[in-house]
Amino acid sequence: MKTQALLRASCTAVFVLATASEALAAEGFKLRFPVSGTLGGEIVAPMPSDGWFGSMVVTDVNITGVSGGDGNVLQLTNAGTFAPTAADLAPAVAAGKITSQVAGLLSTRTATYSGTVDTSIKMHQTLTNLLIGNVLSKDVNGGKLVVTVNIPYAATYSSEAKFTGTSPTLSALTPPPPAPAASTLPVAANAIFSQSYQSKLAAQSSAATVTMSGLGDIEASLLWEKSMDELKVVAGATLAMPTGEYEYTPGTLKPNIGFGNYYTLRTGLGMAYTASESMTLGARASLGFNSQNMDSYVRSGDYYGIDLAAAFRTPVGVVGPHLTMLRQYTDDTGSALGANRLSITGVGFFYTVPIVALGKAGLNIAYMKTTDTKNSLMGNFVQARLTKMF
Q: Using CA atoms, how far apart are residues 272 and 308, in angstroms rounded to an integer?
């Protein structure tokens, strides 16, 4: 079939492609896994011959929010101890809201608080990935070895964040104020605390509202591929390295293009089964293991991912649905957000067509939308993937 022959160039890339910055966990709520899916119409193609191949991938990411552990829009608990400082008290004294005597009494007292912060986080990113690979000529147990390097670059990355919430009421002051100020001092303390609390929320919002561009985290993969009649199998491992633009800012949810100063080893097994002349079924299972971030000392939990796809040959190309499920099965450690296990499901469809003018080349266009998320981004992804054998 002409379509099958011309799609040959894309077969290897479909199993190893990984785009960056699409999922969230402890490190800015991100895990290194291509949530937009790794399977497309290329699963209908036969295994490629020896030689070099390349993929250019452009992914448009539109994030509409972040979910919490209950699947609803993320809410944060903001609790701590308020100990008025000179920076808190001096403006109130200057404005005539409190006297110097009241300021002196407050400076020696503390109180606790606990409040809820609502989040509104929107992001847009245009990510370009260049994947270069080589199918080695030597057979290994009846199959081929493939090495790839995946280089992501975020041409545009923008986020708009708002953290809002009613200022909580302080607990009783410690030590208790003297009798003459027992009723007035708590009122003054709450007024000063409220102003400080709202200022910090505004500062958090400002820190998480950014526009940037830069390199993402580079990934290197080694895979083994084998074709057995109607079944194709690909097994291998990917090492993701901390090469991306990343700045650790303690106490903020400032987004970054890079995932953080740590490594991820992702193993995987993919299969494509030709059920009939017109239909091919694809599946891939992955396991991801993270090291500790050497800047924040947070270790994102390990995870597994499952990709499923069905490809139908038509006179105008290959079309079909795909499903991606990502589940974090161990807790984050060292994070102020606690266990924070990520869970995300995405559904979508793809269309693949050969590009005759480029020779052995194929174009895969895919759309994916998140349908069920916990501790994760919510949104949709549109991706165009051009792959060519050389």
A: 10
Contact in structure between 314 and 284 (CB atoms under 8 Å)? no
The letter for the amino acid at 21 is: S
Query: Do 21 and 259 touch, CB atoms closer than 8 A?
Result: yes
CA–CA gap between residue 131 and residue 283 (Å, rounded): 21
**Residue 221's closest CA among 142, 145, 121, 325?**
145
DSSP 109-123: -BEEEEEEEEEEEEE
Residue 172 gets which letter from DSSP? Answer: -
DSSP letter, residue 299:
B
Indicate the burial class of 90 (C-beta count within 10 angstroms; 0-12, 13-18, 19 or more).
Answer: exposed
Structure tokens at 246: 């990343």
Rounded CA separation 117/166 (Å): 8
What tens digit of pLDDT does each residue of 190-246 get? Answer: 999 999 999 999 998 998 899 999 999 999 999 999 988 889 999 999 999 999 988
Q: What is the pTM of this model?
A: 0.85
Contacts for 198 with CB less than 8 Å, ≥ 6 apart: 167
From residue 172, alpha-carbon distances to 104, 105, 111 in Å are 17, 14, 6
Cα 54 from Cα 306, distance rounded (Å): 24
Nearest one of 266, 377, 265 to 28, comparing CA atoms: 377
Question: Which secondary-structure segment (H or E) carries 267?
Answer: strand 264-274
Q: What six digits make up the tokens of 46?
A: 């036969």
Exposed / middle / buried, residue 17 (Cβ in 10 Å: 0-12, 13-18, 19+): buried
Is residue 219 within 8 A of residue 149, CB to CB? The reply is yes
HSE (side-chain half, CA atoms, 13 Å) at 357? 2
CB 14 within 8 A of CB 36: no
